Amino acid sequence: MTSELTSEVTGDVNGSTTDAATAAARPGPTNGLTDVEGLRVGHASRTGDGWLTGTTVVLCPPGGAVAGVDVRGGGPGTRETDLLDPRNMVERVHAVVLSGGSAFGLAAADGVMRRLAADGTGLQVGGPGEVVPIVPAAVVFDLGRGGDFTARPDASTGEQALTAAQSAPAGPVVQGATGAGTGALAGGLKGGVGTASVVLPDGTTVAALAVVNAFGSCVDPQTGELYALSFGMPGEFPPLRRPDAHDVEQARRRAAELAAKAGLGPGRATTIGVLATDRTLTKAQCAKIAGIAHDGMARGIRPVHTMFDGDTVFTLATGATPAPDAAAFHALLDAAGDCFTRAVGHAMLAAESVSTPAGQWLSYRDAYPSAFASVGSGPTGILDTTTTTSETTDTTTDATTDTDDGESAHP
């Protein structure tokens, strides 16, 4: 496998893969994180009665996965990131938690640890059953967006998301305003969860999951086009047209009004995510991939890594296939950056408009309807959670839609 890829990569490792190698790459079966065999994703979301938040759990295969992390935002909210330093002892993690709730949302990892420990999953530190699950976590700021500042994920939310991951067969990851992306915003538009994958010419699978809740924008302010769309694989994104000038001007005005209302404050945004591969990698290599994912983030969001963001990316290597040589690792890095950019694009396209007592945020589709003139109306409308009875919903990877008791304006 490795020799096939080596023959297709140019001798100049400062460049990208050759046209032949790029042409041979393709999205995975579901174009999502679970295309890396052994990984599962579960969401828990809560909306209504002041709630607009949730938690996403990425569950590793039995025995865990080698992991790394790169934290670049100026206001991060994280857990167990020091442990992932290549100089430190523990190699493998058993799950990764991504959550809303700002620093309060880190409590969701407690519920995941508790459940994993009860199942006997974790780092063995003593006799039978004496384990410590290793569960790194990162959070986004969504406090008060449902109307109640105290409505935020806790340990029970983490348990619910883990249950969703454990009970789901391998399959597509639910995207949009779900899990950790339930209350996400991005540059004045509704953000959410997005995912993408690629299978390289040598059979290596690389995938990304992004929770887009950025201070910066995912949209070119001059044209109204999503930055990420130009990095899609052939046929991956719908054939959108450039939005009309009227839509662009209206979107600029709304964004300026929302920015003035929200003001600036520490850690009020953040994009977080997970990169994954089936290759055998070291912690140092995983950290390098996480850093390259930030390059992909910067291609899909502008600006990134601000003092108001806590941008953080984890990398998981399941070790199902052998360690790459230098050329194959270069190709993996190249794919990782593009995968994260594409995941950002899918998050923005999958998000739906929402209205709560705290405000109303339009999806990209509803803010720029003229962009979709050639692809049909699609799922437009505003999810109104202002009078909804609060209910927690588990969303599993085999679901096709995220459900709750909210009144939807969809036809």
TrEMBL record:
<feature type="region of interest" description="Disordered">
    <location>
        <begin position="379"/>
        <end position="411"/>
    </location>
</feature>
<comment type="similarity">
    <text>Belongs to the peptidase S58 family.</text>
</comment>
<feature type="region of interest" description="Disordered">
    <location>
        <begin position="1"/>
        <end position="36"/>
    </location>
</feature>
<dbReference type="InterPro" id="IPR005321">
    <property type="entry name" value="Peptidase_S58_DmpA"/>
</dbReference>
<feature type="compositionally biased region" description="Low complexity">
    <location>
        <begin position="384"/>
        <end position="400"/>
    </location>
</feature>
<dbReference type="GO" id="GO:0004177">
    <property type="term" value="F:aminopeptidase activity"/>
</dbReference>
<feature type="compositionally biased region" description="Acidic residues">
    <location>
        <begin position="401"/>
        <end position="411"/>
    </location>
</feature>
<protein>
    <submittedName>
        <fullName>Putative pantetheine hydrolase</fullName>
    </submittedName>
</protein>
<dbReference type="InterPro" id="IPR016117">
    <property type="entry name" value="ArgJ-like_dom_sf"/>
</dbReference>
<dbReference type="Pfam" id="PF03576">
    <property type="entry name" value="Peptidase_S58"/>
</dbReference>
<feature type="compositionally biased region" description="Polar residues">
    <location>
        <begin position="1"/>
        <end position="20"/>
    </location>
</feature>
<keyword id="KW-0378">Hydrolase</keyword>
